[in-house]
User: Which sequence fits this backbone?
């Protein structure tokens, strides 16, 4: 039986005024780009020799806004490893700048990456070295 998936800290950032929308919160697209970066890390760890591309972001939920100065943490959990793809859950939490120590869940998503070869076609995620 496989052990339970491990949740790991993928990235941690503080976002700046340049990342805000007209309402004063951080653009959702900025958060999505960091989700993509964070989720790619455990995929690459499965097989560092592989090149992975993002093929889908599913179940994206924006639960609460992110504000300038919040400390934003992106936690990742590998949900599924298929033959050519990897699905990663990314949970985003913030520590509000005016309330250190308290974390608030702000966004969650499932991101799917596909391993590709030099020709751009899908190839197996795992090879004989990385099973």
Assistant:
């Amino acid at each position: 039986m496989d052990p339970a998936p491990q949740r790991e800290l993928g990235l941690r950032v503080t976002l700046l005024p340049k990342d805000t929308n007209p309402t004063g919160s951080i653009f959702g697209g900025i958060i999505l780009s960091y989700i993509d970066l964070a989720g790619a890390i455990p995929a690459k760890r499965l097989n560092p020799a592989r090149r992975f591309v993002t093929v889908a972001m599913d179940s994206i939920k924006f639960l609460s806004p992110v504000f300038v100065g919040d400390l934003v943490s992106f936690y990742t959990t590998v949900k599924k490893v298929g033959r050519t793809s990897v699905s990663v859950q990314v949970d985003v939490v913030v520590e509000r700048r005016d309330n250190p120590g308290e974390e608030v869940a702000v966004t969650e998503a499932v991101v799917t990456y596909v391993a590709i070869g030099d020709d751009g076609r899908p190839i197996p995620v795992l090879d004989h070295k990385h099973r």
The helical segments are 28-46. The longest strand covers residues 103-116. The mean pLDDT is 93.
